[in-house]
Protein backbone atom coordinates (compact mmCIF):
# COMPACT_ATOMS: atom_id res chain seq x y z
CA UNK A 1 0.00 0.00 0.00
CA UNK A 2 1.10 3.55 -0.66
CA UNK A 3 2.53 5.14 2.50
CA UNK A 4 0.45 8.29 1.97
CA UNK A 5 -2.67 6.17 2.35
CA UNK A 6 -1.49 4.93 5.74
CA UNK A 7 -0.21 8.13 7.42
CA UNK A 8 -2.76 10.34 9.14
CA UNK A 9 -2.62 13.72 10.83
CA UNK A 10 -5.65 15.33 12.45
CA UNK A 11 -5.38 18.97 13.43
CA UNK A 12 -8.23 19.36 15.91
CA UNK A 13 -8.77 19.67 19.66
CA UNK A 14 -8.62 16.45 21.68
CA UNK A 15 -10.40 15.18 24.75
CA UNK A 16 -9.03 13.11 27.62
CA UNK A 17 -12.46 11.57 28.26
CA UNK A 18 -11.97 7.90 27.44
CA UNK A 19 -15.17 7.48 25.40
CA UNK A 20 -15.13 10.88 23.71
CA UNK A 21 -15.04 10.92 19.90
CA UNK A 22 -11.97 13.16 19.96
CA UNK A 23 -9.95 11.04 22.39
CA UNK A 24 -6.82 10.03 20.43
CA UNK A 25 -6.26 6.77 22.34
CA UNK A 26 -9.83 5.65 21.61
CA UNK A 27 -9.42 6.72 18.00
CA UNK A 28 -6.24 4.69 17.51
CA UNK A 29 -7.86 1.64 19.14
CA UNK A 30 -10.71 1.88 16.64
CA UNK A 31 -8.46 2.24 13.59
CA UNK A 32 -5.83 -0.33 14.55
CA UNK A 33 -5.65 -3.57 12.60
CA UNK A 34 -3.14 -6.35 13.33
CA UNK A 35 0.15 -5.70 11.59
CA UNK A 36 -0.10 -1.89 11.81
CA UNK A 37 2.99 -0.04 13.00
CA UNK A 38 1.56 2.68 15.24
CA UNK A 39 3.53 5.83 16.07
CA UNK A 40 1.84 8.20 18.51
CA UNK A 41 2.94 11.84 18.80
CA UNK A 42 1.60 13.85 21.74
CA UNK A 43 2.23 17.59 21.93
CA UNK A 44 -0.78 19.63 23.04
CA UNK A 45 1.02 22.07 25.36
CA UNK A 46 -1.32 21.36 28.25
CA UNK A 47 0.24 19.34 31.04
CA UNK A 48 -2.97 17.98 32.61
CA UNK A 49 -4.43 16.88 29.27
CA UNK A 50 -1.18 15.28 28.18
CA UNK A 51 -0.88 13.47 31.51
CA UNK A 52 -4.37 12.00 31.16
CA UNK A 53 -3.63 10.76 27.65
CA UNK A 54 -0.33 9.22 28.77
CA UNK A 55 -2.10 7.35 31.60
CA UNK A 56 -4.47 5.89 29.00
CA UNK A 57 -1.56 4.80 26.80
CA UNK A 58 -0.02 3.01 29.78
CA UNK A 59 -3.25 1.32 30.87
CA UNK A 60 -4.27 -2.25 30.18
CA UNK A 61 -6.19 -2.49 26.94
CA UNK A 62 -4.40 0.46 25.36
CA UNK A 63 -3.78 0.20 21.63
CA UNK A 64 -0.56 -1.55 20.57
CA UNK A 65 1.75 1.40 19.97
CA UNK A 66 5.29 0.83 18.70
CA UNK A 67 6.71 4.26 19.48
CA UNK A 68 5.57 7.39 21.32
CA UNK A 69 6.95 10.88 20.79
CA UNK A 70 5.95 13.04 23.71
CA UNK A 71 6.79 16.58 24.74
CA UNK A 72 6.42 16.24 28.48
CA UNK A 73 6.22 19.69 30.01
CA UNK A 74 8.45 19.94 33.02
CA UNK A 75 9.81 23.04 34.66
CA UNK A 76 13.24 24.04 33.47
CA UNK A 77 14.92 27.39 34.20
CA UNK A 78 16.15 27.80 30.62
CA UNK A 79 12.59 27.52 29.27
CA UNK A 80 10.95 29.98 31.65
CA UNK A 81 11.41 32.84 29.19
CA UNK A 82 8.99 31.16 26.75
CA UNK A 83 6.87 29.03 29.05
CA UNK A 84 6.76 30.69 32.45
CA UNK A 85 4.37 28.27 34.17
CA UNK A 86 4.46 25.29 31.85
CA UNK A 87 5.39 22.18 33.79
CA UNK A 88 5.76 23.93 37.11
CA UNK A 89 5.92 21.28 39.84
CA UNK A 90 7.23 18.60 37.48
CA UNK A 91 10.95 17.91 37.40
CA UNK A 92 13.25 16.26 34.90
CA UNK A 93 13.49 13.36 37.38
CA UNK A 94 9.69 12.97 37.18
CA UNK A 95 9.92 12.82 33.39
CA UNK A 96 12.72 10.27 33.51
CA UNK A 97 10.76 8.10 35.94
CA UNK A 98 7.70 8.16 33.67
CA UNK A 99 9.68 7.21 30.58
CA UNK A 100 11.53 4.36 32.32
CA UNK A 101 8.20 3.02 33.60
CA UNK A 102 6.60 3.36 30.16
CA UNK A 103 9.43 1.56 28.41
CA UNK A 104 9.52 -1.28 30.92
CA UNK A 105 5.78 -1.87 31.39
CA UNK A 106 4.37 -1.30 27.90
CA UNK A 107 7.45 -2.44 25.98
CA UNK A 108 7.40 0.32 23.40
CA UNK A 109 9.82 3.14 22.75
CA UNK A 110 9.17 6.56 24.28
CA UNK A 111 11.05 9.56 22.95
CA UNK A 112 10.94 12.77 25.02
CA UNK A 113 11.80 16.32 24.11
CA UNK A 114 13.05 18.94 24.74
Verbal overview:
With 114 residues, the chain is of the alpha/beta class. Helix content is 30%, strand content 11%. The chain contains 3 helices and 3 strands; from the N terminus they run αβαβαβ. Strands 1-2-3 form a 3-stranded parallel sheet, with helices on one face. Helix 2 links the parallel strand 1 (39-42) and strand 2. The mean pLDDT is 82.
Please supply descriptive tags for the structure shown above.
114 residues
Which structural class best describes the helix and strand composition? alpha/beta
Output the helix-strand order. Answer: HEHEHE
Task: Catalogue the unreliable spans.
Answer: none
The percent range for helix content is 25-40%
Taking Cα atoms only, what radius of gyration do you get, to the nearest Å? 15 Å
> Quick one: overall form?
globular
Q: Strand portion, in percent? A: 5-15%
- Average pLDDT taken over every residue: 82
- How many runs of DSSP E, i.e. beta strands? 3
Give the helix tally.
Answer: 3
Sheet having the most strands: 3 strands, parallel
Q: How are the strands ordered across the major sheet? A: 1-2-3
Alpha carbon gap, first and last residue:
34 Å
Amino acid sequence: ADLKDRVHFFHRPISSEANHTDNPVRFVKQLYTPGDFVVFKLDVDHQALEGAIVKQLLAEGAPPVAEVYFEYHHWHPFMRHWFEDSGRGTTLQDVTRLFVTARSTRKFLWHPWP
